[in-house]
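hi! just following up on the protien thing from before. the input was this:
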Amino acid sequence: MWQQIYTFFRQYPAQQKVAELLLMYGLRVQTDGLFCGPIELSHAKVARAIGVDRRAVASTIETIMEHEELQPVFANLQPTSHLKEVAPHMGWGVVEIIPVDASKPGILAAVAAVIADADISIRQAVVDDYQMTEEPRLFIVTETPLPGDVITSIRSCNDVKAVIAY
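and the predicted 3d structure came back as:
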């Protein structure tokens, strides 16, 4: 799917950069502007954040609105709170999983099963899209920090290359 989206921006590197930002942060495009949830965003500030001209932001929005294949994707994006940086301050655990091949199914299920077998609740799981991220990761925030034996069990799951506990 992402390759289809990128075909619309292939000839416009600045627009591609804007489209990637929109997808990464769940910024929604509507006819009346650019939004993070209900908050309208300035084209100039978005452009400054990624080092492009504000006109590139406006052009990206125009491109999205001109193509009915793009509209439903970008009109329905939603931002998501990522708890990995907050977790240590709340007494929660964080584990980062580096997969061998992120496109293989079952990695999240296997890791979640190990954590569930240890009777630890998962508060959040965030998976990087392997087509959008060069080195995708799986981040799991748990109710309590994971004990060493659970981390060792996670390391032995199929298609897990490495585990980093915070």
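The chain is about 40% helix and 20% strand.
The first helix runs from residue 2 to 7.
cheers
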